[in-house]
Fold this protein.
Amino acid sequence: MKDFEVRHVRNKGFAVYNGSTNERESGFYSGRPLAESYCDTLNRQKKKRDAMSKRKCMCCGRVFLSEGIHNRLCRNCGGSGLGKEMIEPCTLQL
Ligand SMILES: [Zn+2]
């Protein structure tokens, strides 16, 4: 997979293109810096997505999309912000 890149189109301006599909991902900008800042944003998002990998949840054993090495619990078990107690409320044992 290639990254996004800024290309200049004659008589139109600068736009961000997907290096893999050659599809235009933005409108045309009159200045290169504007297009480049949008391009950076897309590449950052892509990097984050690429860094995600499938991992087995340490809690329930289900395979889930992990955000990185620190992320070992699936969404249901509290890996991404939501605590388990939000989904399965603790019940008081009397
Ligand atoms: Zn889990």
User: Anything to note?
Assistant: The longest helix spans residues 32-51. The chain has two domains: 4-51, 53-87. The CA atoms of residues 6 and 37 lie 10 Å apart. The longest strand covers residues 4-9.
